[in-house]
Fold this sequence. Notes:
Number of helices: 7
CATH topology: Rossmann fold
Number of domains: 1
CATH class: Alpha Beta
Shape: globular
Largest sheet: 7 strands, mixed
Bound molecules: S-adenosyl-L-homocysteine, magnesium ion
Low-confidence stretches: none
Mean pLDDT: 95
Order of helices and strands: HHHEHEHEEHEHEE
Radius of gyration: 16 Å
Amino acid sequence: MTYFSALNKYKNNDYIKYMEEYASNHKVPILKEEGLDLLVSIIKMNNVKNILEIGTAIGYSSSVFALINKDIRIDTIERDELMYQEALKNINALGLESQINIIFEDALNVDLSTLKLDQYDLIFIDAAKSQYTNFFTKFEVKLRKGGIIFSDNLLFHGLVENASGKESRNLNQMLRKIRAYNEWLSNNEAYDTTFLRIGDGIAISIKK
Ligand code: SAH
Ligand code: MG
């Protein structure tokens, strides 16, 4: 751990460290340090209490958010059974079951009325990159006015900006979808969006 990140106390939690190692060993794409630190700051600055996360993976980001404050409640959606089981295990190990509700389903199939919370202060979109516009339009009705949508991986390892030309057809298709989402978001008049060259590329959209 670097000098500076050691100063952030939440990273000194042994179980959080274990999750980081697990993610690294199993190639689980958890939120990168800069993005996580930014999101943690946003949650604190805006007194965010209700969070919806699309893409739980092993429950790393949701655990970090829940540990900020006991009043924070999170609904998080995961479609992969292995990830779901791993997240359940981790959240129980941390004793965060009362704060984090994991929904095992494809986010695009989730019935909005089954979500535990009826309004969110923040929605964190971190699942299949080709579906971002669909996730956004589906869940934005649950975001309060002034609420934030945080989208991760919008530069996709820099390839969204600078593709080498040697990408596979599938990868190119995904890069096109991310670019389309970025354009759409930039032109979406219902939100005020800032794109940040942080981590793997982040957008912060505030609902007007
Ligand atoms: N937010 C996590 C990382 C999520 S990785 C963290 O930072 O710790 C992305 C996850 O989204 C993967 O586990 C993947 O299985 C899940 N996912 C992808 N598409 C999905 C969908 N349509 N519905 C639900 N989960 C999805
Ligand atoms: Mg991500």
